[in-house]
Amino acid sequence: MKLSISDRSSFLGNLSTIGRVTGKERTVKVRFVFCNGKFYVSRRTADGDWFKNILNNSSVVVEVNSEKIKGFAELVKDDLLSRQISKLKYRDKRREENRVVIGITPKR
Question: For the chain, which ranges sit under pLDDT 50?
Answer without folding.
Answer: none
